[in-house]
């Protein structure tokens, strides 16, 4: 339980550091949080995958902000896979997160000139987002 709390606080600390324009330290702390969640997820895969995916996605976003697009994609891709698995178990809870992760993946693929893959990822994200919209038909 202590490690879970530590990872949570490291994630919060990373957000604060990023807000204070200390991206290198923010990256260091979110990377540590991701490592802790990865370890916890290995021991309790029923409890931590959502937290791991969220932290990987935040790490990817930070790397992207720093212009490190290859590393950002490497962080985002496992988050996409985790959200895919979670969506199978609980569609309503995780579908928005999957759409967000796919959008970030598409952005990074675009930065790396992998346009065909970027288009496929954004098309999937758009299909998910459209599916999540409430029906306008009565």
Question: Could you please describe the fold and organization of this structure?
Answer:
The protein is mainly α and 138 residues long. It has a single domain, classed as Tetratricopeptide repeat domain (Serine Threonine Protein Phosphatase 5, Tetratricopeptide repeat), CATH 1.25.40.10. The chain contains 6 helices and no strands. α4 (69-89) packs antiparallel against α5 and α5 packs antiparallel against α6 (115-132). The longest helix has 21 residues, at 23-43.
Task: Quickly give the structural class.
Answer: mainly alpha
CATH overall fold name: Serine Threonine Protein Phosphatase 5, Tetratricopeptide repeat
Count of the separate structural domains: 1
Please count the helical segments.
Answer: 6
Oligomer: single chain
Helical residue percent band: over 70%
Please, what is the CATH homologous superfamily? Tetratricopeptide repeat domain
Helices and strands, in order, run as HHHHHH
* Global outline: globular
Low-confidence region ranges: none
Beta-strand percent range:
under 5%
Characterize the main sheet. Answer: none
Rg from alpha-carbon coordinates: 16 Å
> What is the mean pLDDT?
93
Question: What is the CA–CA distance across the termini?
Answer: 48 Å
The CATH architecture name reads Alpha Horseshoe
Number of strands: 0
Q: State the CATH class.
A: Mainly Alpha
